[in-house]
Amino acid sequence: MGRVSQIQVAGFCYPPVPLMAPAQSVVVKGLSKVYQVHERGAGLTASLRSLFHRRYRAVQAVQDLSFSIAPGERVGFLGPNGAGKTTTLKVLSGLLHPTEGEVLVSGFVPQRRQVEFLKQITLVMGQKQQLLWDLPPVETFALNRAIYDIEERTFKQTLDELTTLLDIGTIAQKPTRQLSLGERMKCELAAALLHRPQVLFLDEPTIGLDVSMQLTVREFIHSYNERHGATVILTSHYMDDVAALCPRVIVIDHGRLRYDGSLPDLVRSVNPHKQIALRTSAPLDRAALERVGAVVALDAARAVLQVPRAALHEAVAHLLGRPEVTDLTVEDPPLEEVMRAFFARPTAEQEAAP
Ligand SMILES: Nc1ncnc2c1ncn2[C@@H]1O[C@H](COP(=O)(O)OP(=O)(O)OP(=O)(O)O)[C@@H](O)[C@H]1O
Fold first, then answer.
1. How far apart are CA 128 and CA 251, in angstroms?
2. Which residues contact 295 (CB under 8 A, 6 or more apart)?
3. In a 10 Å sphere around its CB, with 0-12 CB exposed, 13-18 middle and 19+ buried, how is residue 49 labelled?
């Protein structure tokens, strides 16, 4: 952790900012987080007993997690429910202390919550909101300007840019409680980005939004990343978000790292096949199709085949030569299916277990 050149004196850190721009935006080494959960039996007697004898159960949310992320990268942070994604994002943004391990974000130790660190990051949680409920979002924007001590001219410039990109000119003037979910999320994003953070932790930012609003939010995140060179770490159960935004994915399961690499490589490793969908003017012969690949569906006007990626070129050339074929598309299997198959695989530890 030599990059943080700070001297700790009676709880204060000097200097308040890292001396050098960090080569990595996020560094996580051997991170573990254990929650101590108070256990209480049902009924009055158990409640009274728990006042005197409190029993705790340890919940291991994150286990020995290590990765690093370069400035400007867009990374999807994936895993099934309860995998430890939100816990990790909370540690990275300094809301939770790690039980073990070391974490650096923009060269800062997050749990110190230094002002300069807070100006570098933002955490957007799709299920929580920071907008003041009874007031228009513009009031939250003004509050954030004061909290982050943003200079008037910069504030106006940034707000103008965000207002145009997110198209919130009118809606930011209405009380938050009157806004639709999608309108609210756009204003949440604006409020979270007014201080121009360099590291964005986005936890399910498109949850509950319709397809068109998901697209708007996705495009906005992409454009913010490109304009400001900001690092984006995104969790989402909508695989379309991840496919559209994240060249790299980090996958965790039961708090442990399962994969870190490109999304196409992950898809290839889980499913080494491509799907060919055909529209036909007359029924194709099943036996002839089976010589090309595995037949997934076949009727008078349509056929779907699965072929190994290595044989794709030859299969497409052959099928296009058939006079009955009027249309041909090549697809990957749906990402949701790929992820389901990935998580159904035994982990390295499970395989090693007797
Ligand atoms: N405050 C808490 N106290 C005790 N246990 C917790 C707490 N927060 C999370 N957990 C537990 O830690 C584990 C990881 O939870 P976390 O919310 O980080 O997962 P997640 O990957 O974000 O899940 P989801 O996709 O459902 O949001 C789960 O077993 C959860 O029950």
1. 23
2. 286, 289, 303, 304, 305
3. middle
> What is the CATH T-level fold of the domain 272-331, as seen in this structure?
Alpha-Beta Plaits (3.30.70)
Q: Is 58 in the pocket of ligand 1 (CB under 6 A)?
A: no
> pTM score, two decimals?
0.84
The ipTM assigned to this model is: 0.97
Q: Which residues pair with 279 in a beta bridge?
A: 302, 327
- Nearest Cα to Cα of residue 228 among 267, 184, 183, 197: 197
Do residues 330 and 312 touch, judged by C-beta distance below 8 A? Answer: yes
290 Cα to the center of ligand 1, angstroms: 46
Judge if the beta carbon of residue 82 lies within 6 A of ligand 1: yes
Task: List the single range of 37-46, 160-169, 212-221 with lowest mean pLDDT.
Answer: 37-46
Fold of 7-30+64-265: Rossmann fold (3.40.50)
Half-sphere exposure of 259 (CA within 13 A, CB side): 22
Q: What local confidence, expressed as pLDDT, does residue 3 receive? A: 39
